[in-house]
Amino acid sequence: MTPTTRSPLTPVTLGLDVGTSGVKAVAVTAAGDTLAESTHPYPLLTPRPGWTEQRPADWLAGVRAALRDLSAALEGRAHPLALGLSGQMHGLVPLDANGEVLRPALLWNDQRTGAQVEQIEARVPRADLVARTGNRAVTGFQLPKILWLRDEEPEVFARLRHALIPKDYVRYALTGVLAAEPSDASGVGALNLARGAWDADVLGALDLTPDLFPPLVKSTDVVGTLTREWAAATGLPEGLPVVAGGGDNAAAGIALGLSGARPDVGSVSLGTSGVIFSPLRDPTPDPEGRVHLFAHADGGYHLLGVTLSAAGSLEWLHAKLAPDTPIAALLEEAAQVPPGAGGVTFLPYLSGERSPLMNPHARAAFTGLSLAHGRAHLTRAVLEGSVAALADAYGVMQAIAPLNTLISTGGGARSDLWLGLASGALNLPVHPTSARPGAAHGAAILAMPAAGLHPNLTAAMDATRPDLHPPVPPVDMADALTAYAAARTALYGG
Questions:
Q1: Is the dihedral of CA 484, 490, 492, 494 positive or negative?
Q2: pLDDT of residue 147
Q3: N or C end of the chain: smaller count of CB under 10 Å?
């Protein structure tokens, strides 16, 4: 008998996405194939209307479980070489001098900081802030959260020594090293994009100092290594290199192959929020700050147009008006309604609105309702309203970063009707993908150069870029766009 030989273990990188509803961990090969994945949920805290918080300890519990699952699934099959991170942007994790969490984290969709946004705009002219940071002051960003802490919880602020973004806190827990990278740091509201450094002038005007924030590294840099404690808790190798990673939108863009090297290809995401992603080579903001400009994890930049309630609007309608009807059935009903939803229009501002209104106080509305309308018209209007809001944002972006092609992502990408409506609203071809890689996959790809799987990030993105399906047929949105613009202008101006 000839002795049996074990096949060599497949080299992989791991990606971890610290999301709003839970953590996702993936193991990805050099070719972009997913060998294993795990998700673990954690709670969302809403102590008051408009407030959203999470306990960082809950993130760590989810991370521990997800990485343990991944380690078990890879045993005897694959060898992890590096770990990259991604996560929800803009949140504030306040730490004391010993690195201990001072209070629950304030999240990206928390709306308590209206007074602090006014403080920022009173001390730093909007045009100057946009020119420096790429963005106006926004309630969801981290910087006004720090000011809120100073105003409303001064005893906590007095102990504050480090302000971290969620994924950077998780990385600190895994490695013991404080660091930030540009794609997430540019969502704080205090990063000078042109210089790639914390803006001492902006912070000084607010009586803050740059040493509150971690040192900046590149998104592909190794920040530290997995500690002995975390290795024992997860089954992963002690000393596993941990890479900086990127914010969730930037990491998802990396997973889709979006880069300033191909500035005409962007993405449309129909997740809880709706997002148009457009890569840029140079940091060129909208002068009025109606859309976001962030650093990209590839070393370039990107514009984001964001409507806060895309699939979130459909989930709201489902939960409140038709909880016993599957969402797939609602979509089938909506497909039978002609374009324009019989004159019903929906403004999807259930959580306020970002682009282009930048108004946390905006509220949703149905207009044009009559006795002739039913549930199917409401569903169709929600679908049309969500993509009309994206078209509203793209109208601003198009002058700066025009696109020729969109790749679809997010849960709404499963609906050909919704993608067709998006194509019709944006007047761009929308391509589904066979795989639906997300931020966790992008984090794993960002770790590939450090793992030696590819010589650089460009090569890693080329090797893992998903295959595109033919574009979905566009659906007529002309009447819906006209009605949306009229309703939006009547309630919130042009």
A1: positive
A2: 98
A3: N
